[in-house]
Write a structure and sequence with these properties.
alpha/beta, Aspartate Aminotransferase, domain 2, Aspartate Aminotransferase, domain 1, 12 strands, binds pyridoxal-5'-phosphate
């Protein structure tokens, strides 16, 4: 594998760090499903791998690529995005304070609200778009600040550099869930974050056929070693086949994300003018409250995710989700196929989300087909 520092990330991704199989010249790495690896005549490991809960060739390859794409000192892949987030939180000690943006991916917030009190962690859920709330939560110090930007599914934008500075002053590490942005559009470690997290299930893999999580770190320090130990200790390692598929997905990451971003901006601008759409939540729109920060910290687009609020409340929201023909009514995001979802149905009545909100994950289909599909579905809503 080449470590050429002058190559651009899209080159590193397309060539999986210029992988060439030493024996055969194959440009695609072989898949090693083996869980165990034989030792040599001196009883020493023959290569880097011994047992697949600790890692394996495909895991090593995909981690090396992810570390380069995020500009980190190392990367770790996990069996899911949530497993990777949990490994960071479980590296804290009882009594530590965790300051977290409240409007993050709801599944993680739900887990934090259950786990933190039972393990003696002082969880402070705040609106991190409000600097005063962050200052108050950091008063007296903290161990970890967790944020997500743009945040799912309201697509709020958090100023990573500003939060990083405050976190550092309070003695806390900053971890950023950058799933919606990907390293194509946003590199949190360069903005001062300590750890960047991805649900690799989404854009990094990009084909809706792998469940995976990933972390990259600015420093391979003791905290990072504890995170690694948590992965091994609870067996949250990514499987060999999933790691192999993830590496394949990453080869087209830059093309996919740029195309989806351009289409999402096109759709957001057009939907904003539609009489049956009350609000479009997309950081690429100048009207979005986080637009100016997004312009500063994102490069090359604002992502393929947007949400819309339709006139007519819950019935209209559900009606729209049921009447698209190209957008598939399914959960998740970041795949090549566009998805539409009525989030309140998924999150339940306790959800903070409005009844009329639909989340759109924009894929790589023709932009005109996607717009026409949404327009025909909107037309079918009651006037
Ligand atoms: C922003 C974000 N972070 C984390 C997760 C959790 O990832 P996974 O489903 O891979 O565990 C999700 C899942 O939807 C997500 O959207």
């Amino acid at each position: 594998m080449s470590q050429d520092n002058d190559l651009k990330p899209e080159t590193l991704a397309a060539q999986a760090l210029h992988f060439l199989d030493a024996e055969t010249g194959a440009v695609v790495p072989p898949l090693h499903p083996s869980t165990t690896f034989a030792r040599d005549a001196d009883y020493a490991p023959r290569g880097a791998s011994t047992y697949s809960r600790y890692g394996g060739p495909a895991v090593d390859q995909v981690e090396a690529l992810l570390a380069r794409l995020e500009g980190g000192a190392g990367a770790l892949v996990f069996a899911s995005g949530l497993a990777s987030s949990a490994a960071v939180v479980m590296a804290l000690k009882p009594g530590d304070r965790l300051v977290c943006h409240a409007h993050i991916y709801w599944g993680f917030r739900e887990w934090l609200e259950d786990f933190c009190p039972r393990f003696g962690l002082d969880l402070r859920l705040i609106d991190m778009t409000d600097a005063a709330q962050l200052d108050a939560a950091l008063e007296g110090g903290a161990a970890l600040v967790w944020t997500e930007t743009p945040s799912n599914p309201l697509w709020e934008v958090i100023d990573i550099a500003a939060v990083a500075e405050k976190a550092r002053a309070a003695g806390a590490r900053l971890a950023v869930d950058s799933t919606a942005a990907t390293p194509v559009l946003q590199r949190p470690l360069e903005l001062g974050a300590d750890i960047v997290m991805h649900s690799a299930t989404k854009y990094l893999n990009g084909h809706s056929d792998v469940l995976a999580g990933a972390l990259a770190t600015r420093q391979a320090d003791d905290f990072w070693q504890r995170v690694r130990f948590n992965r091994t200790g609870v067996g949250a390692m990514l499987g060999a086949f999933e790691a192999w598929l993830l590496l394949r997905g990453l080869r087209t990451l830059y093309l996919r994300v740029r195309h989806a971003s351009a289409t999402a901006l096109f759709l957001a601008s057009r939907l904003q003018r539609h009489p049956k759409v009350q609000q479009v939540l997309y950081p690429g729109l100048p009207e979005h409250p986080g637009h100016e920060i997004a312009c500063r910290q994102m490069d090359g687009g604002f992502g393929g995710m947007l949400s819309i609020r339709v006139a007519g409340g819950r019935a209209a929201g559900l009606g729209l989700a049921k009447s698209t023909r190209v957008f598939v009514p399914a959960t998740s995001l970041g795949g090549v196929e566009s998805l539409i979802e009525h989030r309140k149905t998924i999150e339940g009545e306790a959800s903070i989300l409005p009844d009329d909100l639909l989340r759109l994950s924009v894929g790589i289909e023709h932009p005109g087909d996607l717009l026409a599909d949404l327009e025909q579905a909107l037309e079918r809503l009651a006037p």
